[in-house]
Amino acid sequence: MIRVGVNGYGTIGKRVADAVMRQKDMELVGVTAVHPHYKYAVAQQKGIPLYAVDMKSLEALRGSGANIRGTLNDLLQRVDIVVDASPGDTGAANKPIYEQAAVKAIFQGGEEHGLTGTSFVAQCNFEEAAGKSMVRVVSCNTTGLCRTLGAIDKGVGISVARAVLARRATDPDDVKKGPIDAVVLDPTTLPSHHGPDVLTVLKGFEVVTMAFKIPTTHMHLHSLIVTLKKPAAKEEVVASLQHAPRISLVDGKSGFKSTASIMDLARETGRSRNDIYEATVWKDSVTVVGADAYMFLAVHQEAIVVPENIDAIRAVSGGYTRELSMRMTDDSLGIIHR
Ligand code: NAD
Predict the structure, then answer these.
(1) What is the pLDDT of residues 139-161, one digit of tens each?
(2) Cα-to-centroid distance, 288 and ligand 1 (Å)
(3) Measured in angstroms, how far is the CA atom of residue 286 from the centroid of ligand 1?
(4) What distance in Å separates the CA atoms of residue 335 and residue 329, rounded to the nearest whole number?
(5) How far apart are CA 188 and CA 48, in angstroms?
(6) How wide is the angle at C-alpha 61 spanned by C-alphas 305 and 301, nearest 5°?
(7) pLDDT tens figures, 183-210
(8) Which of 78, 79, 73 is nearest to 57 (CA)?
């Protein structure tokens, strides 16, 4: 069993912890808590052991009556791997703590690529992470782009990819952030960080991205314009996506007119937390004009990186092939395995 701890129990950490509990070859040893909050009471109801991030948190949490097993340092003594799902840029400060404890670590997309030197998307570069002690799972948008562009590149070949990202403003429970009545250029300059970030995982073609935030909390929507190495039929582009892992195709004619329909599908099919782990492409949006392919791609920001975290744990542990790890992860989360 791979013994796993999760440091940072928020949007991503909660989901990764639940996914770890679904793996036959992993044990969730515990998660960290920062200050008294109902989410930690829920974790305890699920049987998840809690550890305080530091001594100050330990006092506050014990004062509130929570059953706390110790601090992060105690948790690190009991695990093989820690998944750092703390707020962006906090992972960098946590890295020396993991190094001192001689524990392998998986970081998230809010950290810089340079923190680990290895950025990860399972179906693109599982083998690159093999045996490494520290790996970064890329952000939600970068994961969606890597899966989609990687599949098209493998199927028909890409010379330049361009993407315009309409980003959800914030996560549903994050009431402090906006906008509620604006479209915010994110940033005003080009490229947004997503294009260069894709190139930390995929090689061999150019990627230029631009992004803006819109007043929604569920899903990002990308408009992709992909210049292929040579003209191809629309069917070839669709086939490359259809045969790739963790990409699902939807169709406007079947009622998928917006991101709301995709979230509704997750509810109707009983997905945990309404999570859509797959990058979702509108099949009927795929259009090829000469050597340029156009399409819409949606990314559920809270969920898409969850399977990648599970595969990253196996990749750094060693002893698994990409196929075996992805199959185990997919089966445990209800993702159709390809
Ligand atoms: P979050 O704010 O929802 O959760 C972070 C958790 O860490 C909170 O529970 C917070 O209390 C806790 N925390 C605060 N300081 C800490 C510390 N020093 N040590 C440990 N824990 C601490 O954040 P999130 O959205 O889950 O993001 C986590 C990481 O995942 C970031 O790098 C982010 O960029 C990345 N990510 C987020 C999303 C998303 O859409 N939310 C998607 C993909 C990747």
Answers:
(1) 999 999 999 999 999 999 999 99
(2) 39
(3) 34
(4) 8
(5) 43
(6) 15
(7) 999 999 999 999 999 999 999 999 999 9
(8) 73
